[in-house]
Amino acid sequence: MAAPSTRLFSSTPRGARLARQLALHHLDTWGVPHSSPASDIAALLVAEECRGLHLVEAFADRWDVLDRIPVGKTVVAELDLTH
């Protein structure tokens, strides 16, 4: 499996949509097909406005918040995928 790429997205609805599309594309290329249960859970976790961290906490197996220099934060979440 290739290493995930690092991208910065704006904190707007458009940025959330782009982040979600990219995550689902990566999962599909890694063998997790669109509309599978694992893909659906990942779609809920990626870039949800307002309720996002609640979803991350509910569904992710491991997660953390990292400081981004010079400003901002990045949420990293891991799922133990079985499909």
Automatic annotation (TrEMBL):
Organism: Streptomyces kasugaensis
Stated name of the protein: Uncharacterized protein
